[in-house]
Structure to design on (406 residues):
């Protein structure tokens, strides 16, 4: 504290005591005496402020300069050591955490990397009609019609997207993004057969394993995160009634496009398919299907009025599985690597999925033409095919007969 300021404070205490004593001894003169003392103290304080101003400006400029130098310096070894110790401690303390706790830790780590901002949060209030309408993303948007596995827009659609799209190949978040970008609107979810095989309630996001997170506009009275892996169908019904979060409507049955020809068609030489005798569609009865991609087959369904075989029982993918269906697990340095079957020739044959959230795994499925196992599917029953031999086959055993060359 500056000497001058201490001196002024001493004078202030002394003058105050004098004012109190004088007021007690001479009550009538207390008012004038107090005013004179206050005036004297005010004058001395203003003088001290002017004296200290020059010294304060010099000190403030020096402090700002020192701070700028510190900001330009890189972290010291001690700081780096402290940060690494913190990371190791967090990893050790997270052992045994539940899936919900791990999901929260991931969100906190992502939030710490964001640039902090100062201000008040923006709260968007939605109208009662918006909250009352639960979008049915397992149905084509309003004004669109389902043909085969595609959603086809009517002539009244004037949006920026193509008038046909494989909507049912998209994940929930991608469907909502499609609606925003393409300026379409989904129907409200009405009474329908709910899909209790789904990991999450309708419009809830799967953040980690079986942990589901509510949408931003959720106004129910339950927690915004819930773990559903131990829930029975009855538990899910009760959760929906209590928390206002019903399960999604069952999506349309998908098709399997691994077959070369449509359902009921016969494959001839060179992957040429022949229509059945009762086919009366707009296309010819012969079609060459060599090298057709999944999207090409979906377009062929719409154009020719045919279908590829149905998928059968609805499959809810288990994205907590370490590897896709038919891929082998290989443990290396504490991580799980997934090795593709010998016959696979799409994306990289060695993949690591440990750090992928479910949304990225869904995107990988579509891009690479593979899928994760269904919930409840026993992976041990899935054979990992080895190299296929060619040659004459023994009719009794079905094995390839090895021909000895002479």
């Amino acid at each position: 504290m500056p000497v001058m300021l201490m001196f002024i404070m001493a004078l202030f205490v002394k003058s105050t005591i004098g004012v109190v004593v004088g007021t007690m001894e001479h009550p009538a003169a207390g008012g004038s005496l107090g005013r004179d003392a206050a005036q004297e103290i005010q004058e001395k304080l203003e003088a001290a402020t002017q004296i200290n101003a020059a010294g304060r400006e010099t000190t403030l400029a020096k402090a700002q300069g020192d701070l700028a130098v510190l900001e330009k310096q890189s972290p010291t070894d001690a700081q780096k050591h402290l940060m690494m110790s913190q990371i190791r401690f967090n990893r050790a303390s997270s052992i045994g955490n539940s899936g919900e706790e791990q999901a929260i830790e991931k969100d906190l780590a992502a939030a710490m990397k964001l640039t902090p901002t100062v201000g008040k949060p923006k709260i968007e209030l939605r109208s009662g009609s918006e909250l009352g309408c639960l979008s049915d993303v397992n149905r084509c948007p309003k004004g669109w019609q389902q043909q085969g596995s595609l959603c086809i827009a009517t002539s009244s659609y004037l949006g920026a997207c193509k008038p046909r799209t494989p909507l049912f190949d998209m994940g929930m978040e991608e469907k909502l993004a499609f609606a925003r970008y393409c300026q379409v609107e989904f129907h409200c979810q009405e009474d329908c057969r709910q899909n209790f095989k789904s990991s999450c309630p309708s419009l809830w996001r799967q953040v980690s394993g079986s942990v589901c997170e509510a949408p931003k506009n959720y106004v129910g009275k339950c927690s915004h995160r819930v773990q559903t892996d131990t829930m029975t169908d009855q538990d899910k019904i009760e959760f929906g009634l209590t928390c206002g979060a019903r399960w999604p409507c069952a999506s349309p049955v998908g098709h399997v496009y691994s077959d070369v020809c449509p359902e009921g068609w016969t494959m001839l030489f060179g992957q040429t398919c022949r229509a059945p005798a009762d086919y009366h569609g707009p296309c010819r009865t012969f079609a060459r299907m060599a090298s057709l991609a999944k999207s090409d087959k979906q377009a062929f369904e719409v154009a020719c009025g045919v279908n590829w075989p149905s998928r059968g029982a609805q499959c809810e993918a288990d994205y907590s599985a370490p590897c896709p269906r038919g891929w082998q697990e290989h443990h290396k340095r504490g991580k799980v690597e997934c090795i593709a079957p010998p016959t696979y020739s799409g994306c990289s044959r060695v993949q690591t999925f440990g750090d992928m959230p479910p949304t990225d795994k869904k995107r990988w499925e579509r891009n690479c033409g593979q899928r994760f196992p269904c919930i409840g599917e026993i992976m041990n029953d899935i054979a990992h095919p080895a190299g296929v031999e060619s040659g004459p086959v023994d009719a009794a055993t079905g094995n390839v007969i090895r021909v000895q060359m002479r």
About this structure: The two ends are 107 Å apart (CA to CA).
